[in-house]
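User: What would this chain look like folded?
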Amino acid sequence: MDGNDLPAGKCPVLHGANTENRESVTRWWPKTLKLDILAQNDTKTNPLSGFDYRAAVKTLDYEAVKRDVLALMTDSQGWWPADYGHYGGSMVRMAWHAAGSYRLEDGRGGAGTGNQRFAPLNSWPDNSGTDKMRRLLWPVKKKYGNKLSWADLMILAGTLAYESMGLKTYGFAFGREDIWAPEIDTYWGDEMEWLAPSDERYGNVDQPETLENPLAAVQMGLIYVNPEGVNGVPDPQKTADQVRETFRRMAMDDEETAALTAGGHTVGKCHGNGSADLLGPAPEAAPIHDQGLGWLNRGNKGIVVGGPEGAWTTDPITFDNGFMSMLLDHEWELTTSPAGAKQWQPVNIAPEDMPRDAHDPSVKRMPMMTDADMAMKVDPIYRGYMEKFRADPEYFRDTFARAWFKLTHRDMGPKNRYIGPWVPAEDLIWQDPIPAGPAGWDVDAVKARIKDSGLSQSDLIATAWDSARTYRGSDMRGGANGARIRLAPQKDWAGNEPDRLARVLSVLEPIASDAGASIADVIVLAGNIGVEQGLRAAGFDIQVPFHPGRGDASDEQTDAASFEPLEPLADGFRNWQKQDYAVQPEEMLLDRSQLLRLTAPEMTVLVGGMRVLGTNHGGTRHGVFTDRVGALTNDFFVNLTDMNNAWVPVDGGIYEIRDRASGAVKWTATRVDLVFGSNTILRAYAEMYAQDDSAEQFARDFVAAWVKVMEADRFDLRA
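Assistant: Here's the prediction, encoded as structure tokens.
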């Protein structure tokens, strides 16, 4: 019997493992806490583990790369011919859609990781055609190898596309490091259907602010808004309202939004010149012989089919004021593209104002506008900017260049992460600037003053933790550097216990001032002292590493509104959440841990240590499974895994830990505490740390994880 004769269901390999949409072994128990999002912080999928991209990219021949990318723009390939003989518009779209998935609420998405290469983004309907641009860039990537990441190359290609079409760009920074697997930690929405009606994401689709957090796009599979209108129904003012909310969630104001729309649609075209039924499947579903390319039109190579059709301007490969002129100088009527998409066309237009055909310069084509473009004319605020841009072309160019730079660099983190010769000298407030920290101050003298300050161990540890826990590895924002915990809005966040925080800062700030140190450094140093006190109480002579160099940001250097989304609504490490939410507390712990770039063992050891150190929010005793509070022992795990204890639910999501023999209540706990005993993976870690021979390993692992959080934003230490 050969393989073809095997009866159905008797496949001798793991049948369906690679071809069916299956979950892991937990698929039989859908409510099991899945730790998969923390695997994103592991390195097992990285074939370049140990490779220092940031060092390698500094050796790149930047000018040679630029020449090669610029040459590619007009080197039209037969397998995918360039519109108007220039790939610029399509390269811009690829880069735009890579960067445009960023959202401010959780910092996820964006172009900083090269995630457009992987599902689901590589197969979103809105990303059709971007796969072809990445393939066109492959010779450049192949030539420069590991010195040039896909993430950097895609954004560089879009930026140089603008330069090749006549825009003086604001700048460009290298330094984005590729990921090697899909970002399973990013929530794109619950819908299983591409382009499902927006209603599923909104409390009320007519009220854009009711869009579910942390989402920014209005439908599954779109980058921003539906180009045909809300739920595909044209209405430019309603679309304008959605545009405003979507771009607000990307940290863009109205002027930046208007500039990006005009500058983005000054070049290139849409490709809706036929029925979408002619297209093959998206890349992730394409047959194996298509080699990862999707949406292939077998009968008409080089043409993407579906959606609106046409160019926005008379000259789609020149950056000019053509968008404003076309939009404002004509009346528009609703029509449909050959693919059946709703779009707008001018009522009357002179032939000389019409763009030529993308592949036959002797033929003129009707220009078009999407409903989102018409929003720029109908909405009075957006229209005001369109008029302003038309009246002052240089102002438009500068405004767009800056907005494009922000769009494509927003998720790179602070400016000290920028690499290369084209980094702008100007400090921009959205980069969260922090001045250089003072050096040469006496660390030992400051430690002595902190120890004599009268502040409790819990005060020291909790303040340092609250300062550092805002860090988001998704967009490298937040963290202890800058000491923004003392500024609005952070000083007033409920999770930071404002009264306690003000009391602690009133003690630490004079110490920092007298020593010539930054308050940012002193806050972290104070937390280290608290941890060292816990180590000594547990019998360990272990020093917590400390590296001074943090600076103190000012109110003027802080965009308070953009920091609001960083507010912790829950902190499982301090056993607190602001209110009840639709998701369980342990799920919020996972989300916070992933943003902090912690692994599952690091999350485990930090929770266990913070409990016994007595750092719970408000001083609650939930999860403090020890009689030696303040000592960095493994008691949390010892008592969690002790079968002499019984775990009994009581009111309000609280549990009592009772002695099985007497029934006496020994401790109380939350779900966040008990998940380390109920989840099989977390229990394995808990049991390991509970072992008689694990006390010192626990202490050393806690210190390592603590320092990782305290230094998460110290990019200067790993430049």
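Residues 141 and 148 are 7 Å apart (CA to CA). If you want, I can go into more detail on any region.
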